[in-house]
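Support request, please re-run this one:
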Amino acid sequence: MVDYYPWNDGNFVVPGHDYELAYWDKDRWKSIALRHSYGYSLTFDSIPNGALLILHDLTEWKEERPFTLLNGKQIWW
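Re-run finished. Output below.
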């Protein structure tokens, strides 16, 4: 499970937006789950270990940065 609280360039989880969490699988982004935000964080289960992840804001399509997880913390790329 991961709780997503991004901090970068004013880009953050916004209540009322729809999001898709995806991971890089060989040659494309593969969807893990879709979530609607009711607050300023999102929770996802079943994240592949060691995966390169990205969170797409499906409502506004803001800047996106891939990240990995290390000991429950986001490492931005």
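The first strand starts at residue 2 and ends at 4. The mean pLDDT is 86.
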